[in-house]
Structures are given as structure tokens and as C-alpha cells.
Amino acid sequence: MRAKLLALAAGLLLATACVWSAPNARAQAHGAAATFSGQRAYEDVKKLVEFGPRPSGSKELERARKYIVEQTGGTLEEWVADTPAGKVKMANVVLELKGQTDDTIVIGGHYDTKRYKEFAFVGANDGGSSAGALVEIARALRASNAPHRFTYRLVFFDGEEAVCREWDECGKPGAPDNTYGSRYEVGRLKERDRLKRVRAFILLDMMGYDKLELGRDDMSTPWLVDVLWRTARELGYSKQFVERVEGVGGDDHVPFLQAGVPSVDLIQLSTYPHWHTPEDTLDKISPRSLKAVGDVVLASLPRVEEKILGERAKGKEETSKQ
Ligand SMILES: [Zn+2]
Questions:
Q1: CB count in 10 Å sphere of residue 136
Q2: How far does the centroid of ligand 1 lie from the alpha carbon of residue 126, in Å?
Q3: Structural domains in the chain?
């Protein structure tokens, strides 16, 4: 993602896996809720970082992709992207968990890392944390047998990072040099006539820092941000989800926003000192931070559904009154 001026930004334990806990009547009636393990997510980030720098088109990214597929059971959506460095083979990893309806919540994050010639950039937080947390979200949702109304579509994006040094340096009108994977995903959803059933998009990006502090991204959809921040407060994560504005200026949620999909970006940019530096390494990541985000995302899903269904019911009432 691209940094805006700092002035803009300054605007304002290991969980017990459900299988080990004694099932109670409620859990049996409603199915076991998804449980996110911060430690497992951390192991995923570690694995990804160990592959080394993972820019689009690299062998290292291919290895990371293989790992993600093995861990999640996701499938590849491949294409060849036109970039300032020529044609680059890219692939998103997609996992769809069918709900009772085709109304869909997309949860995504990028797994590529920015290319640097001058130093080895392993992107533990930038590219690693989002992918690791998403692998564990996939695991948690798959392990849970709780029924869900909405379909969940998990997407690991390739090509979030600009090929050129700066975010906007090499873009042309209608063809930015960034967010390749999320733009591809939105295009595919449109092609398959599925975009109109995508009700919300939750994006993870740089959310594993030991001193995690997520502000409210100023491009994100306010009601959706509110749902996540309220959930965080109720779960005791107010220190991680703070009440200040985060100015990001562009990320994988932009193509979704442009397509009219309510979107939220969970990102720590202005207060992450190691962004796009050789110091973005595994020692900056903590299982506790990954868990905070995993817990909030999982607990928010039914709330997002309720909100959308509530609005729809209200709309119908209005129409019938007219
Ligand atoms: Zn980046």
C-alpha cells in the first residue's frame, strides 16, 4: 500500500481449540464456533518468511503459494499480468466456503512481497502477516461446523505491491501498477455475474506487529469499520483497534470500493516503523496481534450479515409502505 502524508494519518494466549473443549448443549445445537490460534498463524507467517523475498513471478512466491494451497485446500486462479517489468505470471489462491445463501463476504490479503534489489525484503508484516492470518482463518472456518447464512470467499492476492519503486510511479489511466490480484478478482466476480452478491469485503494488510495499533482507514466504508471496531471493543481488543484515523491512500480494497462493495482495510501503516525496510522481519510479529485480528474478523462475520439483512428488511418495509 501507499503511504500518505503522516499528517493525514494523525487525524484523529493461545486459544483452546474447540475440539478439546467439552461440547455444551448450545454448541451442539448451533455447531462449534470457529476458533483462531495466534500461535498457528504465527507458524504460518514464519514458514512464509523462511521462503525468502516473495515478489510476483518468483520461485519463492510459487513455494509460498504451494504452502497456502496445502494448508487451506484453496485453488489457483492464474493469469498473466502486464507490468512495467513485462509479462508476469500471477495467481490468487481462492477458497470458498458455501453458506446457506449466495450472499458473499470476501476476506482477503496479499501474499506477495515488494521487490527490492538493494536488500532482501522478507515482508514479515507486509505480505507475511496477512497471508498467515488468512491461512488460520481458513483453518478455523473449515474446522467449525457452525452453519452460516452467507458464503465466505477467502482470497490470497498476488501482485498487491507495485513493480516500480513507488505506488503510482508507473501506472497508466485504468492500469495501475499495483493491486493486480484484487483487480483480477473483482474482474472475475463481475465476469461470472457474482459481484452483485458480494455484500462486504474485509481486507487484512500489515496486522501482525508486536505493537499492533490499527486505526480507522479513511477510505473504508464507515458502517463496516464500526461493526469491526465495536466487536473489537467487546472482545477486549481496544488497544489494538484504536480510535484514530489511518490514511492509507490505496490498497487491495480500492477495486472492491470502486465496484460498490462496502469494504474495510485492517492495516497499520503510520505507526509501523519497519514498512518497506530490511527490518520487516519475523521478530516484529506476535501471535497475540495475529489472534486479535483473527478473533475480531471471525466474530464480526455474523454481525456483518445481521447488519446487511437488517437493512434489507428495512428497505422492504419502506417499499411496502409506499
Ligand atoms: Zn508493501
A1: 28
A2: 5
A3: 33-321 (3.40.630.10)
